[in-house]
Amino acid sequence: MSSSAPQDAGHRLWSVDEHLADVLGAVRPLEPIELQLLDAQGCVLVEDVTVPVALPPFDNSSMDGYAVRTADVQGASEEFPAVLTVIGDVAAGSGELPTVGPGEAARIMTGAPLPPGAEAVVPVEWTDGGTGGGAAAGMSPASTAPERAGGEVRVHRAAEARAHVRARGSDVQAGDLALAAGTVLGPPQIALLAAIGRGTVRVRPRPRVVVLSTGSELVQPGEPLAAGTIYDSNSFALAAAARDAGAIAYRVGAVADDADTLRSTIEDQLIRADLLVTTGGVSVGAYDVVKEALSSVGSVTPSGSAGPGEDDVEVDATRIDFRKLAMQPGKPQGFGTIGPDHTPLLALPGNPVSSYVSFELFVRPAIRALMGLPESEVRRPSVRAVLKADKALGSPAGRRQFLRGKYDAESGTVSPVGGFGSHLIAALAHADSLMVVPEDVTSVEPGTELEVVLLG
After folding, report:
1. CA-to-CA distance for 182 and 205, rounded, in angstroms?
2. 329 upstream amide cis, omega within 30 of 0
3. Is residue 357 within 8 Å of 405, Cβ to Cβ?
């Protein structure tokens, strides 16, 4: 991976925008494949789909009732009903249809084709249902009352031509564009494809994202905590976030602080990964296992033209950069590609808030880019909102700060949620946005307009 950021000899801070550009510059959309409809849910369409046949393909009834000629029910009322001879039933799926002549009606079900000669449908509630009594509430089942398909029916109201008839092609016409390339296939789109007869569709598959937490202190939820241990929340948060972004997520249990174990785990996971995400072990501590593991995989040689990374290594012709970003939280980051297929790997910090904010800023856009979505749909949407707070908010000089917030669209305001610590998960759970404080701002007064990244 060659860095897209400016290169210099020193170990400087990368900006948020430079790091994101580097990530997106190395990510290519996945190759299209043909999938069955249900398997294509959540995928991005890669070709325009046109309608082969009109939808609906024939005139059909939108009500349970009687197919009639309008002249035969003109002026009909409860006092002077039109009395028509019932010539049979027309059910949904009917093939051979009776012809409705003068003074005749056919009992018809919702979705059934309009029979020849009929011009409208009168709902059963406008008739006596063939019982000879008052207004009917419904039809007798054909299996228990076959005689209702014959005899006479009294119609109590007139009907205009085409009343309660769904016209052929009233939804879409043959040759119309059903779905355009770039469409994400959700339930309504899957329904349309099925309705026009498509059994398979060509899409970019959902990216497979493998999430690994690192840390010997991590315990799986549901297990007892020992002294000095905490529950692993990061892998659950990031796997859920990957699913929310549109990926198929695989969560790997926490890996202890052992470089050999982590290397082996990563190598095992490459077979099912389009993107690897690790969390923890990317700072400067003695047990920052991700840097240790990825700095000694395979044949390692110094990268003389590595660019501005904190540490740059060559791993089987694959560079992994560990760098510091001018942001808070989330200063330490790692990025590169690994393995024979040059699978992208993003190494995120271990503090829960740092990890989640880093995912939203860098991993989510990478997933969306792998899906082949347009640039406008790769990043989270953002708005401008006025800060609503009791006091000014401080921010470190030279760092772009991302603060948890609660956005009120009606008032156009945003309020801080919780404290500033990067370990405060409870505050994150109640936030729906990130307030962005620019690098050159150290204090934000209430009433100041800010950029707000919407998370929901």
Report:
1. 12
2. yes
3. no
DSSP assignment, residue 38? G
- For the stretch 348-369, pLDDT in tens is 999 999 999 999 999 999 999 9
DSSP β-bridge partners for residue 212: 252, 278
- Cα angle 192, 195, 196 (rounded to 5 degrees) comes to 90
Q: What is the pTM of this model?
A: 0.81
Contacts of residue 193, defined as CB under 8 A and 6 or more positions apart, other chains included, come to 37, 49, 178, 179, 185, 201
Decide: 403 and 327 in contact? Cβ < 8 Å: no
Mean residue pLDDT across the chain: 87
Paired strand residues for 449: 386
Query: Which residues partner with 49 through β-bridges?
Result: 179
Dist CA 428 CA 421 (whole Å): 11
Give the Cα-Cα-Cα angle 358, 361, 365 (nearest 5 degrees).
125
Q: Which two tokens stand for residue 426?
A: 């409870």
Give the burial string for 385-403 (b: 16+ CB within 10 Å, else e). bebbbeeebebeeebbbbb
pLDDT tens digits along 181-223: 999 999 999 999 999 999 999 999 999 999 999 888 888 889 8
Q: What tokens does 331 get? A: 């200063």
Pair type for strands 218-219 and 230-231: parallel
**For the CA atoms of 97, 99, 86, 112, what is the dihedral angle to 10 degrees?**
40
Tell me the three state secondary structure of residue 343. Answer: strand
Q: In 3-state terms, what secondary structure has residue 305?
A: coil
Element (H, E) at 266: helix 259-269
Torsion of CA 441, 444, 450, 453, to 10 degrees: 80
